[in-house]
Amino acid sequence: QVQLVESGGGLVQAGGSLRLACTVSGYITMYTMGWYRQAPGKERDFVARLDPNSGSTTYADSVLGRFTISRPYAKNMVYLQMNSLNPEDTAVYYCTAGGGFYPTDYWGQGTQVTVSS
Fold it and tell me: What is the mean pLDDT of the chain?
């Protein structure tokens, strides 16, 4: 069974940075890892994904060039480095894992990110 626990959320001013961490338990070597977010009153949206075989990454257009997903070798951690944050990035951020291109099989409980203007 895969379990995902996010941390690192908080309140930050516009233009600032945060790094979210996802602690993973269970066998995830062949799973795609990802991050999604849900803003108040909106649907849950894809943010970023990391391919387990090639190591390639994919990002939503809204975060491309500002966010970076990473997974250190041999560690059960996944990170989302978020730079140049703006109020539109305010949301609950979820770590995910799964077998598809967009990983949605397993979800963490989420961590709140609030960006003040």
Answer: 95
